Automatic annotation (TrEMBL):
<dbReference type="GO" id="GO:0046872">
    <property type="term" value="F:metal ion binding"/>
</dbReference>
<dbReference type="InterPro" id="IPR029068">
    <property type="entry name" value="Glyas_Bleomycin-R_OHBP_Dase"/>
</dbReference>
<dbReference type="InterPro" id="IPR004360">
    <property type="entry name" value="Glyas_Fos-R_dOase_dom"/>
</dbReference>
<protein>
    <recommendedName>
        <fullName>VOC domain-containing protein</fullName>
    </recommendedName>
</protein>
<dbReference type="GO" id="GO:0046491">
    <property type="term" value="P:L-methylmalonyl-CoA metabolic process"/>
</dbReference>
<feature type="domain" description="VOC">
    <location>
        <begin position="143"/>
        <end position="268"/>
    </location>
</feature>
<dbReference type="Pfam" id="PF00903">
    <property type="entry name" value="Glyoxalase"/>
</dbReference>
<dbReference type="InterPro" id="IPR037523">
    <property type="entry name" value="VOC_core"/>
</dbReference>
<feature type="domain" description="VOC">
    <location>
        <begin position="1"/>
        <end position="104"/>
    </location>
</feature>
<dbReference type="InterPro" id="IPR051785">
    <property type="entry name" value="MMCE/EMCE_epimerase"/>
</dbReference>
<dbReference type="GO" id="GO:0004493">
    <property type="term" value="F:methylmalonyl-CoA epimerase activity"/>
</dbReference>
<keyword id="KW-0479">Metal-binding</keyword>
């Protein structure tokens, strides 16, 4: 994710408390990574008008990058001056949101990761003679999981992603009471028989193109809750959570960053291979969550006032 932000100092402080790790790199932008192998997953550039700048997606091969350069409106292949190097093609989704399709970015060494909590379930026990005491502090972000976007025409955007990115639909959402008016699509990568995230991109109908939220995976449900407690203790603005989604099943927790953009911690999301067919549901509030606090009305707005 590449964002323009109003105050790099505030963004650095927030992202550290959110669980991202700063990356040392020359220039005016601030880079942040998770614990896994991506050398960066969030870029903050100083900007008088905070906004989403681009979404980066990695392609499998140099041949795929060459194909990307042939998409209508795409840039030529260029070198990236960022941690890990690599090559990039810029192209816009229908509605104007910029994508950076990249290849050849060198992995960074993974950071030490806290093992997942061992749970004593009701009829299956696995932890003996060891207490369960999560540490208080920022939760550890592992990786960038997915991005939710508002777009004027979700059908056209979905078709573009299927045609140009090889993505497939996990769930389609209909206007309640309609048989053919679609409100949005949860899109996943087609990795054949290899399971992948239930969605990497979500396209939802909106008056103008914008980012709704960006979501980062953490280790387990304890991490989601402990992250919530830490951010609350640091007096940041909570948005919605902790709860569990229906579509994708993630245990979620949403917060506002210093510029009024939503960021999410999640754990325990669904993984699908390409044999799982798409479902179609009505886009009602009860498709948003199965437990947790009531969905706030601001969840359907673009950003908040700051």
């Amino acid at each position: 994710m590449v964002y323009g932000v109003s105050d790099l100092g505030k963004t650095r402080s927030f992202m550290a408390d959110f669980g991202l790790v700063p990356v040392d790199w020359p220039g005016n932008a601030a880079y942040f990574r998770g614990a896994l192998s991506s050398p960066y997953i969030y870029v903050a550039e100083p900007s008088a008008e905070p906004s989403l700048k681009a979404i980066g997606l990695e392609v499998d091969s140099a041949d795929d990058l060459a194909l990307a350069a042939r998409i209508e409106g795409a840039s030529r292949i260029r070198e990236l001056n960022r941690p890990g190097g690599g090559l990039c093609v810029n192209v816009a989704l229908p509605g104007g949101i910029s994508l950076e399709l990249v290849h050849g970015v060198e992995d960074a060494p993974e950071l030490p990761v806290r093992p997942p909590s061992v749970l004593n379930e009701g009829i299956r026990k696995a932890r003996f003679n060891v207490p369960q005491r999560p540490e208080h502090g920022p939760c550890q972000v592992l990786r960038l999981g997915h991005v939710a976007l508002g777009v004027p025409d979700p059908v056209a955007t979905k078709d573009w992603a299927v045609r140009n990115l090889g993505m497939i639909v996990s769930d389609a959402m209909l206007q309640p009471g309609s048989q053919d008016e679609f409100l949005g699509f949860f899109m996943r990568c087609d990795r054949g028989a290899t399971p992948t995230d239930h969605h990497t991109l979500l396209f939802s109908k909106a008056g103008t193109s914008h980012v709704h939220h960006v979501s980062f995976e953490v280790q387990d449900i304890d991490a989601v809750h402990m992250g919530h407690e830490w951010l609350k203790s640091r007096r940041y603005k909570a948005h919605w959570g902790v709860g569990r989604h229906v579509l994708g099943s993630q245990v979620f927790d949403y917060w506002w960053d210093p510029d009024g953009f939503r960021v999410e911690h999640y754990a325990d999301g669904d993984l699908y291979d390409n044999a799982v067919p798409a479902t179609t549901v009505e886009g009602t509030d009860d498709q948003l969550w199965t437990w947790g606090p009531e969905v706030p009305s601001e969840f359907f707005q673009q950003t908040r006032e700051v």
